[in-house]
Design goal:
The protein is an alpha/beta fold. 44% of the residues lie in helices and 21% in strands. Strands 7-8-6-5-4-3-2-1-9 form a nine-stranded mixed beta sheet, sandwiched between helices. Strands 10-11-12 form a three-stranded antiparallel beta sheet, with no helix packed on it. It binds iron/sulfur cluster.
Length: 385
Amino acid sequence: MAGIYIHIPFCKQACHYCNFHFSTSLRYKNELITALLKEIELTPNFFPEATASAGIIETIYFGGGTPSLCTQDEIKKILDKVREIFSVSADVEITLEANPDDISEKKLQQWKEAGINRLSIGIQSFFEEDLTWMNRAHNSRQAWESLGLATRYFNNITIDLIYGTPALTNEKWKQNVEKAIELGIPHLSCYALTVEPKTPLQKLIREHRTPDVNPDQQSEQFLLLMEWAQQAGYEHYEISNFAKPGFRSRHNSSYWQGKPYFGFGPSAHSFDGQSRWWNVANNTKYMRSIGEGTIPFEKEVLTATQQINELIMISLRTREGLNLERVTQNIRGMNKEELAEVKVQLLKESIKYIKNGLMIQEKEWLRLTREGRLLADGIAADLFL
Ligand code: SF4
């Protein structure tokens, strides 16, 4: 069982906080899609073992960038190519990230016809001043209208919301979450604003043209979010993700369960359980290399320590938590005795967190409490080998 990620590296304009790979010039979109189709075709030659052991593809995710800039024909061609090269499950989850300003009745119909069965909509905020501050391409009216339309065509919808921005009061944050709940959106991905290196936001903060983020405000808004989402019947199944029953993201869940995935397109990452490889994050270099019949990637074989640290990091972010039994299995590069020792060490290191109420242990599982989730990354880093 594996997943496929398709990276569409184009956006209408650059959001100030974003450090993903994208270009705001759509001039070479056709050529890039052609290269992407070719990359999928070349994959069995470049990664024969990973392709042979991938099994059935359970999820396909169009991310970016802005995949909603693709035409229906482009989406169909990509899905046809995936089906030509891989075995795809009959009930495959196919998610498309869409920005509100790209959503229209016609587009929604076309996406449905093309086989998309889950939409991820980049709302971020319903307030005009927040959207302007973020330099989003959409406005408040489009945020509202796009959701009204989307819910008529899709029932499996997730929206992204950002909290912890300097001007977002708790009251405004509440209104953002309440609007999503009122509209019956079954899945929410809520992210604390992070100031990434080399982004316009970092520059604006450095030049004192906008205030820096306030970690206390972010913690407070995260705690409030957990409370509101729980009251509204959402399951908090991963630090940033909340789902009504039956609406967890199958694609992202498979990342968190350490399942293999292929990533296609510039900057896309792939993982086969032990190695990770990633494509060049440059559209021109990507197209040129694919044109010459070569996938432009770099590869890293994870050591046993890296495999375990990654497992700790991603598992602790999930509702289920870290399964200690899993630490002693499926880790290549350490023998049984060494892995048993790792388990003992992890338990020993966890005691202080269990004692101060940040973590609980249930049989083989270590999971974070509500308060522990506020410190997830720090606790995970502390448990690293
Ligand atoms: S639309 Fe998404 S990928 Fe594009 S700049 Fe904004 S946040 Fe980044």
